[in-house]
Write a structure and sequence with these properties.
- Helices cover 18% and strands 35% of the residues.
């Protein structure tokens, strides 16, 4: 249940739009209703990121949540079959997330190059973030 609530909160923040949600209090628990326009985190994990030239520049690997707010996307760049990947965290405002109704597919675009991502500060899955 906790994972679902986190995914819903992150997905709503990812779209950057304020969607009306109905909150119902029952004791110490609060429940929300997901809207048809919301996105779930599992829809974004694995989405390839392209730039304005339609070149593949990376892939969404994870979401960073900070105080119940989407703080960033962990993006992998480079590597082959999971080896030698370089991870960076990009701002939610840097990515444009869209759903293509006709293709039933999520897309992500970013105004950057693969080289821009490779030269960004590296994120490492270590310490409390170790996988």
């Amino acid at each position: 249940m906790r994972r679902t609530l986190i995914a819903i909160a992150a997905a709503a923040a990812a779209l950057g739009a304020a969607h009306a949600q109905t909150a119902v209090g029952t004791g110490s628990h609060v429940f929300v209703t997901a809207q048809p326009t919301d996105v779930l985190s599992y829809n974004l994990i694995g989405v390839k990121i392209t730039n304005g030239e339609n070149k593949d520049i990376g892939e969404i690997k994870d979401l960073v949540l900070s105080k119940d707010t989407l703080a960033g996307y962990i993006v992998s760049v480079g590597g082959f079959l999971g080896m030698g990947e370089h991870y960076v965290v990009v701002s939610p405002s840097a990515l444009k997330i869209s759903y293509l109704e006709n293709d039933k597919k999520w897309t992500a675009t970013m105004d950057a190059t693969k080289e821009d991502l490779k030269s960004a500060p590296e994120f490492k899955y270590e310490g409390r973030w170790k996988r």
